[in-house]
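Exercise 7 asks you to align residues with tokens for two separate proteins.
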Amino acid sequence: MEIHVTAGPACLDELKLRRLLTSGVSAVRLNMSYADERQLTHLVTLIRRLAPDVTIGADIRGRKLRIGAVPNDKVALTAGQQFRLLFSEDAKQCADGCAYVSYPLKLTAGAAVLLDDGAITLTVMEVKEGEIYCRVETDAQLSSGCGVNTPGFPIELPPLSKKDYGDIEILSRLSIDFVYLSYVERAQDIVTLRQTLCAHKMKDTVVAKVEQALAVKNLEEICAVSDAICIARGDLGVEIDLPQIPYVQRHIIQTARQYGKPVLLAGEVMLSLVNRYKPFRAELTDVITALEQGVDGFILSDETAIGIDPANAVRHLHALIAEFNRRCANQYE
């Protein structure tokens, strides 16, 4: 059973990283949306020294839209305030009351813009001279680099961006075992990425992240060309109505298994452990349900990237998996 952990500020120093890598980790996920070459080189070298058997995967951003930097990396939004979205390919930093998006959004008045996996809702009030004027619907904290979703308004982007090609160039100089591709829509996305990796003489093992309605529709063709499937419930819960998520999860697991492909579950697996030392009881049941459905592993994100005790999060997940395996073994004795 695989446990993938996301590297982040909470586990970057050597002592914390050592504790994390010896807590039952199978792989480390590098989020290319936030890393730079110097940090990546240092981190990969450190992981290889501390835990040679742990694999390393890089998460390629793909069609994922993000806002640029905001002042002090976090700003408070108040329900009812006006907030502007501006276009900049570099998604540069802006002042209070606005944020840059790396792709020009084609929206109309009344459309919803969801930020940070739907935690923040903006309603479009007016589109004028390339700027989108929105109303903030609830009090919230907006962080630099958080994701942008526009349900009902498809965004026509290629599977790999200019940044992605630059990231792959950087990764080709490091020892990376596999890549995750975010925002997969169809089989050709995987083919394009695999060709790019081969052109850089890299390992071409690809985990397809299913987090869009279109990916669910094209699931069989995606499974056919991928090495593994990740159910990315964060964005999936924004793209698809929330009551459908448990059923879509089960469908993805069943389809991946039919194609003989490993399937990983990501998105709020044990999110309470970002700020707690013991998980919520509902999270325990969620993990066991996923195991019963046939998942082959889990990906921890905020739990290890920014959580108060990354190694503790892995230990709790590892203990649940061990208990599940023990009970399954007893059934056949």
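Second protein for Exercise 7:
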Amino acid sequence: MINLKEMKSIPVEMAADIIGKAPQFIRIGLQQQRLPFGIAVMTSSVWSYHISYEQLKNYIGIDRLNEYERTH
């Protein structure tokens, strides 16, 4: 069982699965500052992502996060 709240940052692939979108949707949304639950930073020529549990919870709702934790 996964405990999302204990993660320092939720991986892009996991956030995509929770929301029901492709990982590329999450990456581009964060790069363009259109998604309110994380940030994207370019270092050299590589993008790094941070997705906050609290901000994702506010965006998607605690019920969906709890359901994801129960089923994974």
